[in-house]
Design goal:
Blueprint lengths: L10 H18 L2 H8 L1 E3 L2 E4 L2 E4 L5 E7 L3 H16 L3 E8 L9 E6 L6 H15 L6 E7 L3 H4 L9 H12 L1
Parallel strand pairs: 4-5, 4-7, 5-6
Antiparallel strand pairs: 1-2, 2-3
Helix pairs in contact: 2-3
């Protein structure tokens, strides 16, 4: 029997079916699941949809995760990569207020979303300083991006005031 022609006796069955679809959908859009589906290790290489990257020459991996799904993407990448780098992973998570939680070895920064604030400027500076402090040799950087980054990290270009950046952001959201 189809959804449009169901009688009242089919409601429970359809409700279970709808719940299963919704559950599968929500699981599929979680950052960990996306990372597990898109990233894997094979013969010393990090493989993803866009290609593969040699890891055997690296002694350290730094993971930078930015966005509303940053926490879960970082967790998924750590699951895949921690054995390969055995204690030689560092990272930084920048996510929306209320979405961050301790996740060693990551430093977690919560920032403003959907509109940038002065905390967004500080978060952008923290990311820059974090990356500049990494060793130049033997260190790879894996960047994971999800939605929200333009508000979470906001450092206006020279000649633009922070207030102008906020106004522009508000206009883009409306």
């Amino acid at each position: 029997r189809g959804l449009l022609s169901m009688d009242m006796s089919g409601r429970k069955e359809t409700s279970s079916w709808t719940s299963a679809i919704l559950s599968d959908f929500l699981r599929a859009i979680r950052g960990e699941e996306i990372i597990r589906d898109c990233v894997n290790l094979s013969a010393g290489k990090l493989c993803c949809r866009e290609g593969s990257f040699e890891l055997d020459t690296l002694s350290h991996l730094h993971i930078l995760a930015i966005g509303k799904a940053a926490q879960s993407m970082a967790r998924g990448s750590l699951e895949i990569l921690s054995e390969k780098f055995d204690g030689s992973i560092s990272g930084l998570i920048v996510t929306k207020d209320g979405h961050g939680a301790p996740l060693p070895p990551f430093k977690v920064i919560e920032s403003s979303h959907p509109l940038p604030s002065l905390r967004s400027v500080q978060a952008a500076r923290s990311v820059r300083e974090n990356l500049e402090a990494l060793p130049r040799m033997g260190c790879g950087v894996l960047v994971l991006l999800s939605g929200g980054g333009s508000a979470l990290l906001c450092e206006p270009v020279e000649g633009m005031s922070f207030e102008d950046k906020q106004i522009l952001h508000e206009q883009l959201l409306s």
